[in-house]
Structures are given as structure tokens and as C-alpha cells.
Design brief:
16-stranded mixed sheet, disordered N terminus, SUF_FeS_clus_asmbl_SufD
Length: about 400
Amino acid sequence: MAEAQNIPAGSTTAGAIAVAAESTVATRMSAPPSFDVADFPVPHGREEEWRFTPLERLSGLHDGTAVATGDGVKVAVEAPEGVTVETVDRDDARLGRAGTPVDRIAAQAYTSFAQASVVTVAREAVLTEPIRITVRGEGGVAYTHQVVELGAFAEAVVVIDHTGDAVLAANVEYVLGDGAKLTVVSVQDWDDKAVHVGQQDALIGRDATFKSVIVTFGGDLVRLHPRVTYAATGGEAELFGLYFTDEGQHQEHRLLVDHNQPHNKSNVVYKGALQGEGAHAVWIGDVLIRVAAEGTDTYEMNRNLVLTDGARVDSVPNLEIETGEIVGAGHASATGRFDDEQLFYLMARGIPEQEARRLVVRGFFAELVQQIGVPDVEERLIAKIDEELEASVA
């Protein structure tokens, strides 16, 4: 099966759409989604979905040799009044509703966790404080499963904070009832040797709004797979991402927005900065507009700022469009070096070089940091960006 042609960057209206000849999304998966590990062959690195990932650095998550240990991670949930937090067994009917594992590691995680955490926000509850989920690595191997469910017309902010050292395969589900509004901030601030592979599935109800902000700084290897599907019409998804890739780090974000229902919206904006020899960032953005998804309005963008020599970026946006009856669809991707003219402009006005570099990078990330909406998290991330820049000139 041949790959679909990419729609040119920029907005495309219904009158000018060329329908994709073949399936971009289907051809990049070596096996269909499944909860059974046996349905996925052990990857060898030549498959489309694994070709950018250094398999030898996955610590056995991909081939079944990574065995869970008691000192893998510790998960804690801090929730305001009106939120129910439960620890459930594998047979709980609420597990697996938002999505199905799409690769061997996600399936391994689903079949290997002992118990799952389910956080439920009641119908029409409007939280004034965020739900905070901390995932602290303790040096071992872990498989985890988390469900966050909002009842109809509920509103909540969830912060998931990953720190410490671990080898972790994790699945996270977000289930939004009709008219619900959920903002999720997932921070990957791991120690240098950590490995984190995760699939994050969101199922968006009628007229519901989902905003995801993924921030990745630490870890030896981080590979995240956010996915969105719609349960009905009128839903809106905003997927934002910020990553800062240092020397030797591999950070990979692979997104899919599946417009499977009519009259829904999506907007994707990911930005990354890279510095140091062997820094490698991968961004794969897939948007699928199915035949039934008339009235879709979607756009995706990826921007990368390369701060030093020796860093590498792979950025692949894809649109697959099966109907011409849409409002608009487009994508854009760009990678560039530090703007010397902008730096010179600031330095000519008496700003020291390091401070000028900091201001330029801060400005590059500003629109994404502002999407977080949690002041203490925003302040921490700005401080982290400054710390990364200081390390580059140390």
C-alpha cells in the first residue's frame, strides 16, 4: 500500500482539497490496535513506527525482557473535594474505553499492570483547584494505567508530574462526558537515565473540550503517543507540546487526531529546542479525517529551534482526508537555527549575549507556557528553560 500524499502546508478549504489516495496512518502501523501483546511482532527498527526510535535504549520494554519490580514508581493523587480516586483491578469495566494499544509496548503495559488508578469528576462539578498526580521513579521497572473521567458538564485541570529515575511503560485514558472541559498538563522532568514510553488516549464527548499540554525535558529516552477520538459532534481538541532536548537525549512525540465524527475541531502546536551532540527530537503528527467526519476543522504545526551543532530533528506532519466536505485542514513544519539577527538586535541595545539568548528562547516557548494555566507549573517550566540555557554555556 502506498503512502498518501501530504497536503501542502497552510490552510486548505473544502473547495481545494485533494483526497488522499492511500492511508498515511494505516501504513505506519505494523499491526492493528489490540490489547494482546501477541498481536504485535517484536520490533526490529525497520517498521515505520519504530524507525526513529533507538530500540537498544528501551531497556527491554519492546521485547518483553523488562520485568516489573517493586521499586519501579510510586504514584500519588492529590485531589480537591468532589473528586473520587479509586484503585481498581484489571477487570474494571472503565478500563480501555478511551483507546486500544497501538504498539507492542502499550499492549505490554496494558497486560502487565497489577492495579489501575481511576479518578472521577462528578457530573457538573467545576473544580477550582487542579488534580495533581505525581509519578516518582524509584529506579526500577514499572507498568502503570491511569484513567481520568469527567461527567457531563464537569470542568477540571489535571497535572501529571513525572520525576526520578525509572523504566516506565504507561497508558493514560481521558474520558470526557458531554459538555465537559478538561485540561491536562503532563510534565516529563525525569532524571538523566530514565526511560518513559506512554500512550495517552482521549475520548471526547458531544460539545466537550479537551486541552493537552505535554512538556518534556528529562530522561534518556521519552516516547509519547497522544491520541484523540470523538464520541459525538461538537467536540474540540487542543494539543500543545514543549520539549527541550539535550545532549544524547531522545525525545519522541507521535500524535494522532482521529476525526471519526462530523463537525469537530482540532488544533495541534508543538515546539522544541535542541542543544548538544546527539540530541534527537522526533515529532510525528497524524490527522485522519474519515468519510463520516464532514465539517471538520483542523490544523497542526511543529516548530524546532536548533541551538547548537550536533542536534537532529525529524518532523513529519501528515493529513489523511477521506471527504472533501470539511471546513479546513492544514499543517506546517519548520526547523531552524538560532536567529543571529534577533540576537544582534538585542545585544546592540546593551543586553548581554546570554540574557539575549534566554529572551529569544523564552519568547519562542511563551505561547505554549501560557496555555498551562497553573501558575506554579508555569514558573517551574520557565526556570527549567533558563537552567537548560545556562547549561549550554557552562
